Amino acid sequence: MHALTTCQRAARLLGLGLVLLAPATSAQPILDTKKEEPKPADPAGLPAKGGLAHTPMPAYARKVAVVGASISADFGLKDPTAPKHALPRGWNMLVDGSIIGDHETLMLAGGLVFMDPLGSLSKQLDKAAAAEATTLIGIDALFWFAYGARPEEQRMELFERGLALFDGVKAPLVLGDIPMLQEGPMLRRDMIPSLASVDAFEARLKAWARGKDHVALVPLRKAAAAMHAGEEIVAFGHRFPTKGGPPVLQADQLHTTFHGALALWCLTLDSWRTLVHEDELFAVQQGPRAIQAALNWKYEPDLEVVKYAAVDPTESTYARARGLRKRAPAEVPAKPVEQDAKRVPGGEQGRR
After folding, report:
1. Quick one: average pLDDT of 300-314?
2. How far apart are CA 5 and CA 263, in angstroms?
3. How far apart are CA 106 and CA 347, in angstroms?
4. β-strands 233-235, 238-240 pairing
5. Cα–Cα–Cα angle for 11, 258, 309, rounded to 5 degrees
C-alpha cells in the first residue's frame, strides 16, 4: 500500500463529507498525539481568531482511558498479516480515531480479566489514575463481576466489589450494563448468571449511578439482545442492522466484529455525550460514516465505508443539541464575553 500525502488524505475526507477535519497526522497509529496547547490570542484567554482549528481541546477528550475486558481489548480482531504494533480494526481504534485533535488514548483493557476480575480492573484503574485520565470508558468493565464460574449466591457480592472500585473515579465515567447471554462456545452454563441476577445487577447499577453527574450508563443488555435476535440497533441517530448487513458478532457469538463494535461505540457516544456540553461536542466525530472515514484516513486500512441509514434522513449529522448535558463546559466558553475594543490587541471587538 502506498502512503498517502497529507493533501490526498484531506481530499479523501472532504469527499466523504466529514463534519470536521482533524489536524494532519502520520499514517501510523499514533496514540499519544498530545502537543503543546495553542497560546491564547488575547488577555481574556479566548480562542485565537480562525475558528475551531485554534480552539483548545476540551478537557474530557484530551486523555481517554479504555478499561474493561475482552471486547474493549479487541479480542479476535487482530490481523495476523498486519505489523506487530498495528491496532486491530476494533474498539480501541474506534475510540482513538473518533476523537478530533490532539489527544491521548490509554488502552488499558485486557482479555484475561475473567481470571481475576478484582485484581485486573484494580490495576487498570490505578494506571488510569496515575495517568490523570480525563474520561474512562468501560463498556464491559463489569461483565466478569457478574459472569464466571461461581455459586449464584456469590455473584452480587462480587458485583458490589466491582462497583466499589469505581467509587474513587471522579472523571467522566461511561459504563456498560450487564447483558443476558446464552450458553455458547465461550460461555458454559455454570458461568452464566440467572435472569433474576441480571435484573438485580441492572437495578443495583442504576441505583449506584443515580446522583453521580459524572457517570453515564450504556444499554449493553439491550444491544446484545438485539444482536442475538437479529434486530436493529438505533444509536447516534442511525440504524445498525444486525441481520442482512455486515456481521456484528464473531463466530463465538460473544465478541463483536468491527461493525458490531461500531454499533456499540455509537451507543456509547450517545451515553458519553450526556456528560458533555453541546459546545464541546466538536471534539468527537458526529456520525458512523464520518467515524469510518476518519479511521481510513488515520490508519489507512483502505476498507469500504458502510453507510448506515439515518433515523432522520433530513439530518446529515447527528443533532448536537440532543441529550441531557450534566456538565458545564470544561474549557471553551459557550459565548465568549464581549471585549472593549481598547482592551483587545488589534482593536477588534469581541475577538473569538
Report:
1. 81
2. 30
3. 43
4. antiparallel
5. 65
Burial 106-143 (b: 16+ CB within 10 A, else e): bbbbbbebbeebeebbeebbeebeeeebbbbbbbbbbb
Check if the beta carbon of residue 227 is closer than 8 Å to that of residue 260. yes
Domain span at 169: 6-28+58-327
3-state secondary structure 182-245: CCCCCCCHHHCCCHHHHHHHHHHHHHHHCCCCCEEEECHHHHHHHHHHCCCEEECCEEECCCCC
Question: How remote is the C-alpha of 194 from its chain's centroid?
Answer: 29
Give a yes or no: residue 204 inside a domain.
yes
Name residue 124's amino acid. Q
Question: Does residue 44 fall inside a structural domain?
Answer: no
Q: DSSP code of 51?
A: S
pLDDT of 241-267, one tens digit each? 998 889 999 998 899 999 999 999 999
Cell 482479555, located at residue: 111
The tally of domains found in the chain comes to 1
238: number of CA atoms within 13 Å, CB side? 24
The CATH code of the domain that includes 73 is 3.40.50.1110
Scanning the structure block, which residue is given the C-alpha cell 443533532?
319
Neighbouring residues of 163: CB distance < 8 A, sequence distance ≥ 6: 142, 145, 204, 205, 208
Residue 303 neighbours by CB under 8 Å, 6+ apart = 89, 296
Note whether residue 33 is domain-resident. no
- In the beta sheet, which residues pair with residue 66? 107, 137
Residue 244: its pLDDT value, please?
A: 86
pTM: 0.74
| Residue 157, all three cell numbers | 457480592
Alpha-carbon separation of residue 296 from 20, 188, 215, 267, 345 (angstroms): 15, 38, 31, 21, 41
Query: 63 CB contacts (<8 Å, ≥6 apart)?
Result: 34, 103, 104, 106, 131, 132, 133, 134, 135
Q: Would 347 be classed as within a structural domain?
A: no
